[in-house]
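We emphasize that the prediction below concerns an isolated chain of 489 residues; any contacts that depend on oligomerization or on bound cofactors are therefore not represented. The input was used exactly as deposited, without trimming of termini.
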Amino acid sequence: MYDVIIIGAGVSGCAVARELSRFNLKTMVLEKASDVCEGTSKANSGIVHAGYDAEPGSLKAKLNVLGSRKMAALSKELDFSYKQNGSIVLCFDEKDRFRLEELKARGEENGVEGLSIIERDELLAKEPHAGDEAVAALYAPTGGIVCPFGLTIALAENAFVNGVEFKFGQMVVDIQKQETGYLIKTDKETLEAKVVVNAAGVYADQIHNMVSENKMEITPRKGEYLLYDKNIGNMASHTLFQLPTALGKGILVTPTVHGNLLTGPTASDIPDKDGKETSREGLGQVTQKAALSVKGIPGRQVITSFAGLRAHITKFERGGEGAKLSDDFVIEEVKDAAGFIDVAGMESPGLSCAPATGEYVAGLIKEMLHPQEKQEFISTRKGIINMFLATEEERHAKIKENPAYGNVICRCEMVTEGEILEAIHRPLGATTTDGIKRRTRAGMGRCQSGFCNPRVVDILSRELKIDESEVKKSGEDAWYLLPLEEKEM
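Result of the prediction step, given as a token string:
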């Protein structure tokens, strides 16, 4: 029997796993996909929000500010990309100026530091390409940007090194309460745990409803994005938001930690929990509204579009002090299922909150199980070297160690064979081309894997000792090649 089983290997689940790995607990993360970070955590804005827009007194507000404060130190500890570039909320009409003041007051109540209202001349000094209609803005110097999959993978690897078990490709089909905890049935096996953490993203309602009479409904909120080439990444240096609406923080324009420019997301509620298609209408909306924030973004510099899903709770009877906050996170022990903890509705700013969410949920479990802290906990982790950004001395050392570090596989991002080998053979190593992409950026450049993908497939086949027809892009049905006998049929 496990002490704790965490359902879902997104950023929240992996943050909880990492915090629990500090204790002498038998912990396991159960994920239906083939790798960590294959749901909401892989397709979002990569923003570390300052925390000025969440309702004061809400979990969102508390965890956002705490998570944002922890991110810089955590990025050094676990070696993932993070930059505190600051964020700006643009106002396009003098009649809406009061809303900037409201955001500022709300942020100050939440504990956000350094907030100020800036006029157009100061805005242009910070952002020369700001749209002509912007009249004023809220400036939040503590806002930041992060690599979302870099953060998630770092948390997972560190948890794994400290003893947390990960099982991929297993879908939970039923959960039954027992005297000693829970019986979790997957499509492959049956597992037992004293405590269950439900961090299943857009599927958290289905997991919750297996054990509780207080039913939950999560509606996926789709957001479409455009990603631009690095040669225009300097058109914005801060993250530029527009005054938020009931559907979210609106269309943003932001640099990424890797030097690209990103615009989006839209916000449309859809019934399909796997509906990640982009649309002409949605991407047109992104282009049109992003032009209000930054003028002159060249459309020909788009290298890809994508869509992500946010887990928006549309039905759940909340109790206690937070009942009035209908859009707050649900992070609590289920009232009619002792030992079952929901981490649900983790839409924006869920990524920003992750370090604090992990600590918060681990605190709940400590009260239940009273575990002892490990004396030998490993708090640090070293990421994969980036040969393109490495110094000459570092490059020579790595190539001397293994000549594969001198063999460039991905020309756009200058990723070498040595980096890909490291991604495969490190803790929780990559087993798919998407896993390689998220760990090394091979395939994320201008040609979007058009050149390097066959070589990546070849390397995965060789290193995993499988036929090329067995190499997948991501999950079970994401094949590149069919076995010869199937082709002949």
